[in-house]
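Input record, target 12 of the design panel.
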């Protein structure tokens, strides 16, 4: 559970981030990638998918869903952060699990073999969406302190002493 002191510190770091040029660039990049991907999947990508052999078409379907999931998750996260910045959402509400970056098991999973069978544009969108999702995941961890620090040497020694009857 967060204490008031921690909440103030987290709110300030979140506010500092959402007021930064880094946030603006990330937001703009994310929204542009969403638009570019939607145009591709609804246009040229749809035509290219129809021309693929069966195995490649199945791979295309799965990977296009992965890119869509990544982008939906990142866009949602970015929009929540913008709402906090604009005063439309309280920072503590944005901290809740409901508004955190989701679908990590899908979005961070390794792509299937055979990407070389897919159209180059889709492969490029997959790489760029993966990069963006991973950056947002790191920001989410830093802003909301979900990364647990590794125990220090002192903690390891203490456990060893307890296990082996040390003083």
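The sequence produced for target 12 reads:
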């Amino acid at each position: 559970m967060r204490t008031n002191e921690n909440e103030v510190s987290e709110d300030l770091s979140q506010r500092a981030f959402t007021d930064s040029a880094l946030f603006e660039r990330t937001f703009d990049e994310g929204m542009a990638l969403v638009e570019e991907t939607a145009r591709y999947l609804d246009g040229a990508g749809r035509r290219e998918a129809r021309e693929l052999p069966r195995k490649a078409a199945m791979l295309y379907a799965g990977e296009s869903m992965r890119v869509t999931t990544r982008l939906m998750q990142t866009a949602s996260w970015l929009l929540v952060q913008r709402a906090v910045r604009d005063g439309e959402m309280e920072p503590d509400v944005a901290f809740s699990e409901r508004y955190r970056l989701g679908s990590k098991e899908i979005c961070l999973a390794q792509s299937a073999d055979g990407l070389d069978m897919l159209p180059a544009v889709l492969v490029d969108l997959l790489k760029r969406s993966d990069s963006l999702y991973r950056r947002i995941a790191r920001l989410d961890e830093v802003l909301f302190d979900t990364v647990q620090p590794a125990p220090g040497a002192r903690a390891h020694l203490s456990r060893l002493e307890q296990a082996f009857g040390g003083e």
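DSSP finds eight helices and no strands in the chain.
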